[in-house]
Design a protein that fits this description.
With 131 residues, the protein is an alpha/beta fold. Helix content is 37%, strand content 24%. The protein has six helices and five strands. The chain has helices spanning 4-11, 24-34, 80-89, 91-97, 108-113, 115-120; strands at 12-14, 45-51, 67-74, 100-107, 124-129. It has a five-stranded mixed sheet with strand order 1-5-2-3-4.
Length: 131
């Protein structure tokens, strides 16, 4: 699928559109990333999507789970740097909630060639989009 950007925008929810008490920490993290306060200084990251929605579009309580998935989509060949930057951005979040993010880097090139990976992003929450 060559137009993965429109697919992501159609099939994820912006963090600002979710209204429950639990999501506030992700809204805070999103603002920190956009404001440059969280150490995500990589221009190669295009989207950060968290999987905290059930199949009905409701958030689940991550404090009852020991992990959740974070998809990092971007223009990179080596995945270590974006994973390190996103892990640093999530450090305070982890310390507060004790729930470890599984950071899964997805190079843009793979998205353009593999529809199966795009399906995993469905019903995710978009907390960052490079502007």
């Amino acid at each position: 699928m060559s137009d993965y950007v429109s697919y992501i925008k159609r099939n994820t929810k912006p963090v600002e559109d979710i209204n429950d008490d639990f999501i506030n920490s992700f809204k805070w993290l999103s603002k920190e990333i956009y404001g440059g306060k969280a150490p995500l200084k990589s221009n190669s990251v295009q989207f950060i999507i968290i999987k905290i929605l059930d199949r009905y579009g409701k958030t689940y309580d991550i404090q009852k789970r020991d992990h959740f998935d974070v998809y990092v989509v971007g223009e990179f060949r080596k995945t270590f740097t974006p994973v390190l930057r996103v892990a640093q951005a999530f450090a305070d979040f982890y310390l507060e909630f004790g729930s470890m993010p599984n950071i899964i880097p997805i190079p843009k090139l793979i998205l353009q060639q593999n529809n199966d990976i795009l399906y995993k992003l469905k019903n995710g929450v978009l907390i960052y989009e490079r502007r």
